[in-house]
């Protein structure tokens, strides 16, 4: 079980605590100087505030106007959710349209459109109606009126046939689409309207609901919530359900433990990670529990339904899984002896969380919403590890987390440094009061 893994790791630490690991090369932790930045333009019209991730699970930082930035991108790249900027003012406001469950992707280049999404299987069909591969892979509806015609007709087809992944459109359907795209190309070429005007006409013709001001006021502020809202409910196994139950408890353990240790030996690192990251991580997992209507107090079949009231009744340091409660007590006892011990416990918790998440991500492979949430949790844990490593070094522990032994000594290749896009590292400069803050 997972708790056995961290318990064994804790025992290993006790035996290794007195060992000298100064031979570890601290230069392993330096960031690579050869990071390549790639910006991807995501457009139906410009898609704002989507969750865009590459094949390694890295989440792109939204720079605005549908442009998402990646460090060392790995293709293919896929988008989830977001909002179509109908008036092109660069912000989500009344009159814009939700992307809903419609997905876009690209296997290369710097644009992601319905054309690049369908180009996986339908290149020849597009070539037959006058497009080129270069045009399909480099132009957006805003920059090319023919691409706008293609995008609008495919969007209409997906909407009318309840298709969320345009890449699944078959050859028979594509034959119908070819004729419709050709007709729309001809129409657009002669009516003198811009792609923005034409897109608004299409949305009105389809009677697609536009966002009201009330909708805007109630939009989720967390980008990860976008994927939870934008993907359909999957059929989960009991093992996958248990993984969600365990992760809710595990993220709460990290939050509760860091807050409790911070109360004893105030540390900006503990405080920031607990309040800025772990608290949000708990809410992300709880959103999944709500979506799948899971009663995690009943691990036989999870029947009885989700209840926020029931979960809220669990105080800090108390959990629905007994092993987590016991682990909290053990780690609190160890971390409460000094600030250094508290930071060392942080290293241990984050390494164990990452080990658990690596296994969990294999278990939930193919379940998009849980996968993206877990990837985000792991990205946060990478950042937390380096924050604790830095804080230990600031306290005089030369090797940081590596002083705990080989199991806790990681490189930036193993634990990539966050580019700050959505990892919720909690390493900012939030304020608290207390002595010995670092």
Which structural traits does this protein have?
single chain, 438 residues, alpha+beta, Ferritin, 2 domains, three-stranded antiparallel sheet, 8% strand, disordered C terminus
Would you mind describing this structure in some detail?
With 438 residues, this protein is of the alpha+beta class. It has 2 domains: 2-30 and 234-408, Ferritin (Up-down Bundle); 37-219, no CATH class. It is built from 14 helices and 10 strands. Helix 1 (2-16) runs antiparallel to helix 13, helix 2 (114-128) crosses helix 5 (171-191) and helix 4 (145-160) crosses helix 5 (171-191). The two termini are 35 Å apart.
Layout of secondary structure:
Elements: H1 2-16, E1 37-42, E2 47-48, E3 51-53, E4 61-64, E5 67-71, E6 77-80, E7 83-84, E8 97-98, E9 104-106, E10 111-112, H2 114-128, H3 133-138, H4 145-160, H5 171-191, H6 195-205, H7 213-217, H8 223-230, H9 238-264, H10 268-291, H11 308-312, H12 322-335, H13 339-363, H14 368-394
Parallel strand pairs: 1-10
Antiparallel strand pairs: 1-5, 2-7, 3-6, 4-5, 6-9, 7-8
SSE succession: HEEEEEEEEEEHHHHHHHHHHHHH
The percent of residues in helical segments reads: 40-55%
N- to C-terminal distance? 35 Å
DSSP strand content: 5-15%
Q: Main β-sheet, in a few words?
A: 4 strands, mixed
Q: Whole-number average pLDDT?
A: 86
Query: Overall 3D geometry?
Result: elongated
By CATH, the topology of the largest domain is Ferritin
* Total DSSP helices: 14
Report the top-level CATH class of the largest domain.
Mainly Alpha
User: Could you tell me the number of beta strands?
Assistant: 10
The parts where pLDDT drops under 50 for at least 5 residues are 7-32, 419-437
Strand order of the largest sheet: 4-5-1-10
Q: Can you tell me the number of structural domains?
A: 2
Structural class of the helices, strands and pairings? alpha+beta
Rg, rounded, reads 24 Å
For CATH, the homologous superfamily of the largest domain is named as Ferritin, core subunit, four-helix bundle
Q: Architecture of the largest domain, according to CATH?
A: Up-down Bundle
